Amino acid sequence: MNNEKQTSDAVPKVGQGDVVISARRVSLWYGPVIGINNISIDIGQGVIGLLGPNGAGKSTLLKCMTGQLNPRTGQVSIFKQPVWNNASIYSRVGLVPEQDAFYEEMTGHEFVTYLTRLQGFSKDAASKLADEAIAEMDLEEKRDQPIREYSKGMRQRIKIAQALAHKPDVLFLDEPLAGTDPVGRRHIIQLIQKLGDQGKTIVVSSHVLHEVEQMTTDIVLINRGRIVADGNVYKIREMIDAHPHTIFVDVSEPRKFAAMMAVFEDIVSIEFNERGVQIATTDPDACYARIPDIALENEMTLRGMTSPDNNLMAVFKYLVG
Amino acid sequence: MSQAPTSADRNPSTGSLFQILLTAQVRTLLRSRKTIALTVVQLIPAIAALVYVIFENVDGLTMFRNIVENVTFPFLIPLAALFYGGPTIVDEMEGRTLTYLTLRPIPKTALFLGKLVAGWVVGCLVVIVPMFVLFLLSLATSDDLGATIGSMGQLSMAAALGVITYSSIFALLGAMFTTSLISGIIYFVVFEMIFAALPVLELLSVRYHLRTIAEFNTGDRLGLLDKLILDKPLVLPLWAGILIVLVLTLGTAAAGAYTFQEKEYRV
Asked: For A175, phi and psi rounded to 5 degrees?
């Protein structure tokens, strides 16, 4: 678990298994403005969420990782090969770029086939792979329609299809859910999870936290060009000892319950709202154990107990905010 | 039932990818609107010639050479190159599709050259086919068929060299400045209009060397400015013209490919 403690000795690692993507002391600036600043990280297999607010440096880091930008200092490598100006690495890499850009006159199938052919496949093989990827994205019915006639969600899905068709080992997705409807969103999330389970390395960049939360618990938080925290989202939460942990308790007698909780030293604050009692504690484990006991002993009905602190939004707010 | 393709079905060699890119680009350019528009523009001299052939008593060969010398070479060839060479990379940047191409296992230099060569091919077709139409019209009124055919061959070669040279220059400018039209027009005005009209400096223009290759009449080269410092027109041999143009083409194409490889394009 790492938090603002990047040194040359301890390079943080997220994901499972061997290191697939490695960044060492990577910096890039746009004139006087720093894009990313001295980032070192190792990324293994599985789904990794790259999170941060707009302008945090996510896209810059992603572009350095995919060889679109050349870091001013440091180096990024994939499978131990440098990325910048190393075309051979792209046989194993796929990218879903953020920009909504296409060869508009092409049909979806032509688009995916063309880009798959440029992966070195024959016309027939590329066509078959395009068919598979298009089917995976549920676009078979629209495959022969020009992309300019696609809806925003369909454009997003065909963009993912071109990145998947050659079956890459490493997949970068920049805001993959942008413009998708709830059904398409769910489909893409499940697909990303499936690919992660297959042992592929999937780096998902997003500023929409609840979306990433549904895909993975392995995250890298970035802000102002630096990695703020990385690792498992729950462990990150544990790391923030100084910050009180919030628990919502929906109980039949909230005022009585609050009075009984207030006597404990770890309770920092108690508030009432429409969801029930909101408790802030510095010892969440003890507090979680105590709540059902108190309710039971005092014959109160405990209808629910939830914590926003275990979701990504909370971690994000604590660390970035 | 056929098996799903695997990595064994793959040939990501640079040569193979270059060929795939070139073929796809030629096909795309041939189907593009700009090709239709440019073909129409390139056919205008032929249409004008048709009017002359019908209503005027002109010598076909003279008419053919005059049109090619005064319209095709100074204007139509650079125009075609501006539309096929300049956008080699710029179109992909402006369309924000460059990312798709640069994330394929084809080296950036091969990517640049594949797109440039496709521009050469289509540019040559768009220039030479209308020239051939013009030539066919001129045949109808020419007294010397043998000379006309020989002339067409030489002019076609010069036109093709013109297209590839100008295209390479415009592609280099596009790679350097990420805009092709403005930089191309500035180049054209400075080198091909101003320099081309000045003594000795005319050697820096492609136009001068194309005139040498096409063997246009050198007697009228001596303009007012030339007369101030030269007794007779500056004329290079044919082989020198071809050599200079080829060196210029290869040099600018290589420089463009290198620029594209090393430069970051923020799409």
From this structure: 50, 60
